[in-house]
Amino acid sequence: MIKAALKSLLGRKVRLLMSTFAIVLGVAFVAGSLIFSDTLSRSFTALFASTVGDVVVRPEGGTTADGAPSTVTLPASLVEQLREVPGAARVDGNVNAFGVFVVSDDGKVVSGFGPPAIGGNWSDAPAGHGLQGLTIIEGHEPHGPDEVVFDERTAERAGYAVGDKVDIIPSTAIAQPAGGEPAAPARIQPTLVGIAGFPSGGSLNGATYAAFDTETAQDLFLGGEDAYTDIWVTADDGVSQEQLRDDVEPVLPDGVEAVTGDDAADESASDLMEAISFLTTFLLIFAGISLVVGAFLIVNTFSILVAQRSRELALLRALGASKRQVMWSVQLEAFVLGVLGATIGLGLGVLLAMGIRALFANFGLDLSGQPLIFAPRTFIASYSVGILVTMAAAWLPARRTGRIAPVQAMRDDIALPESSLRRRIAWGLALTVAGLVVLALGLFSDLPHGGWQTGGGILAILLGVAAMSPVISRPFLELARASFARAFGSVGNLAGQNSLRNPRRTAATASALMIGLALACTMAIVGDSAKASVDKSVSENFVGDFVVSNVIGQGFSPVIGDQMQQVDGVDRVVRERFASAERGRGNQFVAAVDPADVDALELDVSDGDALAAGSVMLQRTWADDEDLGVGDDLELELPAGKRTFAVSGIFEDNPVVAAPVLTTLDDFADGGFPDSDNVLILFTDDSPGIQDRLDAVVADLPVVTVKDQAEFAQEQREPIDQFVLMIFALLGLALVIAVLGIVNTLALSVIERTREVGLLRAIGLSRGQLRLMITLESVVIAVLGAVLGVVLGLGFGIALMYAVRDQGLEVISVPVGQLAVFLVLSVVIGVLAAVFPARRAARLDVLRAIATE
Predict the structure, then answer these.
(1) How does it sit in the membrane (predicted)?
(2) CA separation for the pair 684, 690 (Å, rounded)
């Protein structure tokens, strides 16, 4: 039986190749996601290990809750004290700052969303365990205020070489020019004197780094204070990190801590990986979608293959093979296909991982300097998924082979036993109802893990509809047959009858396309509704005449607001700042404004009084969720330490305030947050040329823009468009699998109907008419899948947006034009999918086709 199964498999090489398509693509997505995830994890682990000393001394509030350096520093005198510690080989003070943007030679900001733009002082201190960190590989160290060093990738991306004048925008700079008032330079132009890199390989993963000498860095980022943001202590030979830490701790003042470099690296890497873990989850979700779609194709393929071999299997039964032997012979074929598909898919996954790496490089996460990581789990997962999914998908057709009676081998026509349509309806209806219940719980209840419930409900509904599709699609197929008969005569009638001949096969093939389009339609509705909600929110809540913000989403120098205030026609400038603090076990977003500017924001204060020093105002929804009211205390862990604020007022939700907690600018600064603005709201007299005068202030600052209401709304919509576009790109793989499924089904159907095709040609059907018949069959499958997908996508999208209507997404918008495009594309897909099968059918030799058994 094993020999017979393998011989049968190798005797049908074309079918073998086509049967592996789905599993290859599904496994490729799983392998690619895991390879990218492991590469990402390893790159950050190696990066952080090479950017910490043996012992790191830091203020307890040295960073904000989101990891950015705070204004809490260490006195320079502590460096001298630490040099006296036994076991310390050397001690180096570091100055670090975020928001130090490098502008390329063509005027564009090198930094992007995600990886930070880092600035600081140059140090040649070794990393922990003697590892070599960033090292000058060209040029020399910076000396004086007019010299800077870039990391290798930043210099390359910006188009600079050693000796060039470079543009840098230090958003938190607070330098003090000699004999003048404190001022913040909006832009500096030092000379690039050195390029740094990792000699053993590696990069900063998309972050940019600009290093000055220590005195310049202190002037730029610490206001000239002789201090550091952290200190590295390097261990003598034979001294462990733990021993050195224990020796350092007694020297430290209150509020300062010492941690080993290993602990600091693990802490940074784990925090970052937790923050971006959604990437892996995100990719694996789409891998799962691809596998579900692929499973439909595999089930369909094996159903056709087994049906075509019914006589052969019946003969095996007649020769004495048991039901179990016949069933396991089919499972053996599935196992071989699974191994083959997983192997090819693993190779394709490498290419896919490279593609994912390139895709995320466009969003700032640049891993191009990192080799791909092939962990054992990638191989285990790829082969497990490839083999198990293939064998599971082949189990139903294999099980049906055992129901072939040996006596059927004597008949010319053998029909493979099929399960009852009534049973399919029952199972499909049960799955659909269960899916609706789980979906409702995920969307409308407060149960934990609502995202998994929502996803599980959607999957159950899709599978339920797929199970019922042979029955619920029959009216559509009858209508298509009648329409084709009227439009194309007997050829159209034949195409319609062929679709109706095996509604299970037609519906199963359409179901693969249905899943992809249902999810695409859902995302189209979510994206369109989100943009419509943004437009409504901006139109109803926009205050002032212009908004100034950073295109990177980070802060910018406060001097810009000072300069805007001096522009002729500007009546008022409202500064808004925001950052993350810690509250309990999680982070809490906090905003800050000047109390005198609260009235300009037009907040609807429903309870309490105005904002004052030492107090906060809360958004109504958040206050209700946290059970807080006027007079209560709110405790926050700020970089400068724990602070308790009195709740002075409650205001109705308003997107003008970027966080649910609003405090004063002075309290914000005292808490240790950087001195940088995030948003400026400008009130003007609408005099002619006002925007041109405002634009002139930031003309040399590509990171900062001035926007009116329409431009601000457009800026808010852009991230939504990018997200939806990425979703469509990933869903494209599932749609490719579905299209291949149509091609596969038609091609195998042509093989199955070789004799019938020959007879049709013999009685006068031309090649053109044959191609038209197969094309119409393909169009029926594609349009059926599209109709089911669009209907389900409409339901999912509207339900999802209705469930989140209380989270600021109040508008439900259905992009009718986009959904119509999906339907039109389904016809195009049907026509294109039929090209290969129709061409093959038209080239069949008539006499040989008639003689085929």
Answers:
(1) Multi-pass membrane protein
(2) 8
Give the three-class secondary structure for 227: strand
Q: Are 367 and 357 in contact (CB under 8 A)?
A: yes
The angle at the Cα of 678, spanning 115 to 620, to the nearest 5 degrees, equals 110
Min mean pLDDT across 101-105, 248-252, 406-410, 575-579 is at: 406-410
**How far apart, in Å, are the Cα atoms of 619 and each of 226, 530, 659?**
40, 21, 8
Instruction: Tell me the C-alpha distance between 438 and 425, whole Å.
Output: 20
671 and 581 Cβ atoms separated by less than 8 Å: yes
Rounded Cα gap, residues 324 and 330, in angstroms: 10
Contact 172, 223 (CB under 8 A): no
CA distance 168 to 403: 76
The pTM (predicted TM-score) of the whole model is 0.73
E strands, 712-770, are none
Q: b/e map of 392-426 (b: 16 or more CB within 10 Å)? A: ebbbebbbbbbebeeebbeeeebebeeeeeeebee
Measuring CA to CA, which residue among 87, 90, 88, 93 is closest to residue 74? 93
Q: Of residues 764 and 744, which shows the higher confidence score?
A: 764
Q: Which two tokens stand for residue 185?
A: 């330079």
203 vs 201: CA distance, rounded Å = 7
d(CA 447, CA 443): 9
DSSP state of 85: S
Q: Would you give the DSSP letter of residue 409?
A: G
Print burial letters for 233-253: b (CB count within 10 Å at least 16), e (below 16): bbbeeebebebbbebbeebbe
Give residue-wise pLDDT tens across range 245-275. Answer: 999 999 999 889 999 988 888 887 776 666 6
Residue 376: other Cβ atoms inside 10 A: 7
At 777, which helix (H) or strand (E)?
helix 767-803
Q: Has residue 139 got a pLDDT over 90?
A: yes
Between 21-49 and 277-308, two packed helices, what is the crossing angle to 10 degrees? 160
Burial class (CB in 10 A: 0-12, 13-18, 19+), 820: exposed
In angstroms, the Cα distances linking 225 to 104, 212, 673 are 30, 15, 16
Residue 818 CB-density burial (10 A; 0-12 exposed, 13-18 middle, 19+ buried): middle
Rounded to whole angstroms, the Cα distance separating 622 from 808 reads: 13
